[in-house]
Amino acid sequence: MRLVIFGPQGAGKGTQGSLISEEWGIPAISTGDIFRWSIAQGTDLGGDVKVYVDNGDLVPDRLTVRLVRDRLAQEDTASGWLLDGFPRNIGQAEALDRLSADLDASLDAALLLEVPEDVSLHRILGRRVCSSCGRNYHVDVPPKEDSVCDACGGEVVERSDDNDKEAIRKRLRTYYDETAPLADFYEEHGLLRRIDGKGSPGAIFERIKRDLKRVSHR
Ligand code: AMP
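A: This is the predicted complex of the input protein with adenosine monophosphate.
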C-alpha cells in the first residue's frame, strides 16, 4: 500500500500515520519529523532547514524532494509507504509522480483529513511530541507518566514550532494557499479519499480502514 496523508496542521496526520503504519506494516515517513530530527542532531541537512522550520516556512523543494527520493530508495519501503507532510504543494506532488514512476511504485490513495480550523488550532496548541520516537500526545490525552513516552520512554515535549502563535498562523496560511490545492490535483488523478477528521483517534482510524478497504492496489 502506498499512501500520502494531508490536511491542516493538527488534523491528526501523525497519529493516524502511526496507526496506518502498524496496521499495514509500512513505514510512516514524515518529512517534518526527519527535519526536526536533523535539526536536533545538528546534521548538515538540519543546518540547511532550521531557519525555514523555525519560521513556519516551507523548506525549498529541491531539499525536500531529494530527502524523499533518498528515503523511498531504502529497503523498508519495498512493501509500501505512507508519506505524511509530503507533498506540500503541487510542484512536490508532480515530483512524487515522477519519483513513483522511476521506482515503478505508483500511489494507491491520497487521504485528506478534513477538520474545521477551530479543531485544528485546539489540537496544535495542546500538542506534545516524543523527542525520541516522534509519537504524538495532547495535553488532554497525555502519556501515562508525566513527560515520559508510553512507547519508548523518551521525553515528551512541546514542538518548538508549536509555541509561537505567529508561526502557527503562518503554517496554517501556507497550508490553505499551497497544500489545500492538492485536493483538486488528486481528485483529477482519481486518488483522493476525503476522511472526516473530527472525533477520537480511534473513530477516525475506523473511517480510514473502512475507506481503504475499497482501494485497489496497483
Ligand atoms: P510538519 O511536521 O509536517 O508540520 O512540518 C514541520 C515543518 O517542516 C514545516 O513547517 C516546514 O517548515 C517543514 N516541512 C515539512 N515537510 C515539508 C515539505 N514537504 N516541504 C517543505 N517543508 C516541509
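Strands lie at 2-6, 28-30, 81-84, 109-114, 127-130, 136-138, 156-157, 192-196. The pocket of adenosine monophosphate is lined by residues 9, 31-32, 35, 52-53, 56-59, 64, 85-86, 88, 92, 171 (CB under 6 Å).
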